[in-house]
Amino acid sequence: MDTGFLLPPPQVIGPDSNGIKKVITYKLNREGKTVKITTTSQVRKLATMRVVKRALERRNLTKHNLKVRIMLKNKGTSGAMDQELAEGN
């Protein structure tokens, strides 16, 4: 039998000036008594950072671009590898 409608709704308090957020939920235990559960967590805002366009391109390479990754990593590629990349082998 679903008795979830008898329980109070969850309450979210905060976050306050220190970034502390409290979530209060209720559930029924095995004896059928209501149990209050309080969860306290700290909320942080992560800093954003600028990403260089070339670095973003390297992150988005797929596995089939392995030769391109090797080329970017080594930077000093031979003419034979450039020719292989052009042919698509």
Describe the protein.
By secondary structure, the chain is α+β, with helices and mostly antiparallel strands. It has a domain of 39 residues. 28% of the residues lie in helices and 24% in strands. Strand 1 and strand 2 form a beta hairpin. The radius of gyration is 28 Å and the shape is elongated. This is Eukaryotic translation initiation factor 3 subunit G N-terminal domain-containing protein. Pfam families: eIF3g. It comes from Escallonia herrerae.
Q: Strand content of the residues, in percent? A: 15-25%
* CA-CA gap between termini: 63 Å
Overall morphology: elongated
Number of strands: 3
Radius of gyration: 28 Å
Largest sheet: 3 strands, antiparallel
Tally of contiguous helical segments: 3
Indicate the mean pLDDT: 77
Order of strands, main sheet, comes to 1-2-3
Segments where pLDDT lies below 50 for 5+ residues? Answer: none
Q: Output the helix-strand order.
A: EEEHHH
What percentage of residues falls in helices of 4 or more residues?
Answer: 25-40%
Structural class designation: alpha+beta
